[in-house]
Structure formats: structure tokens, C-alpha cells
Amino acid sequence: MKKIIVVFGATGNLGNRIVRELLKRGAAVRAVVRPATDPEKIGALEKMGTTVEEADLDSVDTLAKASRDAGCVVSALAGLGDVIVDLQKRVLDGAIKAGVPRFIPSDFCTDYTDLVLGENRNFDLRRAFREYIDVSPIQATSIFNGAFADILQYNTPVLNLKEKSIGYWGDKANWPLDFTTMDETAAFTAEVALDEEAPRNLQISSFGVSPTMLWQEVKAATGQDFRLHRLASLADFAQFIKQQRAAYPAGENELYAKWQQGQYMYSMFTTHHTNLANGRYEKLTWTTSADFIKSFVQ
Ligand SMILES: NC(=O)c1ccc[n+]([C@@H]2O[C@H](COP(=O)([O-])OP(=O)(O)OC[C@H]3O[C@@H](n4cnc5c(N)ncnc54)[C@H](OP(=O)(O)O)[C@@H]3O)[C@@H](O)[C@H]2O)c1
Question: Using one digit for the tens of pLDDT, what is the confidence trace for 23-63?
Fold first, then answer.
């Protein structure tokens, strides 16, 4: 019989790709959506071969029913405290009530377990939910993928194609930054969902690339010398983010406020993955930084 995997957040960017990868691997996928979900997105999931169930996400009993007979519940939900902590707690309680043995929370970020509390708001929400999982009777696996590689295309201070610049903080010109493509994160997540032996934490990255390596690879791809420069000390960057946050209280209700983006960058320059599980599933392949950079720079 096919293994049933229940996915929350299946209409999202990452969630949709996880569904696709699960279907490829022969799983029966049940996507649980809220009543407000766009019917077009539901139609697209059904077309892929997913069973879609609409549920009242406020009711643990309904969530338990939606998670019946599943081998694993995967959350790819995105949001602030009401989603990452409150909703995921109900989803987890529903899974436990339904007797589901395994759960994958919507972490999908840099491994925050050694980071300082207060350094990154969105990581702290994940940490709060993690504490709840870790006293729950369910086997959980967190997937830490660093940043999605796609952000390299968005003209951040790390790589700005418009300004032809590559930046770093502190003395971190040679500090490897972890990037994973969304597709590779999704494929790995599907493998984990089907892997009853998966441990509590799994770090991955399609590639680790330092600002200096980025400079070399951009040069190889374009023939151009981008400006490789130190942006500020890490202490000054932390101070700047604090000021930005204080000056923009509305950002407390925004998922990706400017200061939150700064916090992500800061975390990338203070921690990286040293215990990669890239080799855990033999069939998976990983994009190199050179190939990824070549795919969008000219
Ligand atoms: N490491 C990185 O660089 C990086 C970058 C981006 C995202 N991420 C992470 O990847 C994960 C998925 O993000 P994404 O970008 O794929 O998200 P997304 O495209 O915005 O999709 C969010 C999903 O969550 C659902 N959702 C949001 N609020 C909800 C609510 N209140 N109740 C029920 N469902 C709700 C949405 O359902 P509807 O269709 O009903 O709205 C949708 O399925 C998150 O953990 C996110 O933080 C990581």
C-alpha cells in the first residue's frame, strides 16, 4: 500500500514542490488547506494527483481527522507567530491525536539551534515551536537548508548584479554561506518524509560559497570584475538592524520586513552548516555554486 503523507502549506512555493517530489516517489499525498485557500491553487494540486482536504484549522479534532493514517505530516506553512507557533501546535496536536508517528516542521532555514535568542525574530518563532515539539510524543525532523539559492538573484548586499558588487561583513570574505535550491530542498524533504529512520536535525546545502568564491565565479561567468567589499563590522551591522527595527514597528507584523532580511543576512555570517546530510539519500544530486551562478548572471 502507498504511504500516505499529509502536507500543510502545499499551495505555497516550497510546499508545492514537496508535493511534486513526494508524488514522484510514489507516495499518496493529502494536502490539507484552509477554507480561504485559492480554488485555482487547489485545482493545480488536484491536477498533480494530490487529494485535497479543506479543514477548519482552528480545530485539533478536525486536524486529527485530516491527518488520519499518515506516515508523516509535513508542514511547509509560512507566517509569523500565529502560524509558525500557534497553527503548527494545533497541526502537531492533531497529528499526535491521529497516531501519526512522524512530523517535519516548517523550519527550512539556517540551523538556528546554536544561534543567540533575539538575533533573528523568525528563527525565534521556530525555536518556540521546537520546544513544544521536543516535549511531544512524536518523532520530528527539522530540515536546515540555509538560504534558498534563489535569493542570490535578488540584488542583496551579498550579490548585487545592478551595482556589480559583492559584500561581506566583518572579516568574513572567506566565510562559506549555505545555499540550497528550492527544488533540492523539496526533494530532500520528500526523502525525509518517507524515511522512518530520519534523525531530529538534518543540515543540507546545495553549495557553500564565500564572498571571495562568489567573486571568482561571477568573474568566470561574466568576465567582469565585481567590487568585492567589506560592508561593516558584524557589531555595527547588528546595531544597524536594531535601529532599523526600532524605527519600523509595523515590521513586527510583516514576515519579511527590511530589518528581518538584515537578520537573515546576519545569521548567515555568524553560523554555517558543518554537518551536512547531503549524502544521506544516494539518488539526490546537488547544484554547484558555479552552475547556479551561470544560470542567471550574464
Ligand atoms: N531559507 C530561505 O531562504 C527561505 C526563503 C523563503 C521561505 N522559507 C521558508 O520555507 C517555508 C515555506 O515558505 P514559502 O515561501 O513556500 O511560503 P508561501 O509560498 O508563502 O506559502 C505559504 C503556505 O502557507 C499557507 N498559509 C499561510 N498562512 C496560513 C494560515 N494563516 N493558515 C493556513 N495556511 C496558511 C499558505 O496557504 P494559502 O494558499 O491558503 O495561503 C501556503 O500554502 C517557510 O518555513 C518559510 O519560512 C525559507
Answer: 999 999 999 999 999 999 999 999 999 999 999 999 999 99
Relative orientation angle of helices 13-24 and 182-193, to the nearest 10 degrees:
50
Q: Which CATH superfamily is domain 4-144+181-203 in?
A: NAD(P)-binding Rossmann-like Domain (3.40.50.720)
Specify the pLDDT at position 1. Answer: 80
Range(s) of the chain covered by CATH 3.40.50.720: 4-144+181-203
Measured by CA distance, the residue closest to atom 38 of ligand 1 is: 37
List C-alpha distances in Å: 144 to 56, 156, 171, 179, 244. Answer: 29, 21, 25, 10, 27
For residue 205 and ligand 1, the question of a CB distance below 6 A is answered with: no
Q: Ligand 1 center to residue 65 CA distance, Å?
A: 22
Residue 298 has pLDDT above 80, yes or no: no
Q: Is the CB of 202 under 6 A from ligand 1?
A: no
Pocket lining: 105 vs ligand 1, CB cutoff 6 Å: no
Ligand 1 proximity of 147 Cβ (cutoff 6 Å): yes
d(CA 296, CA 285): 20
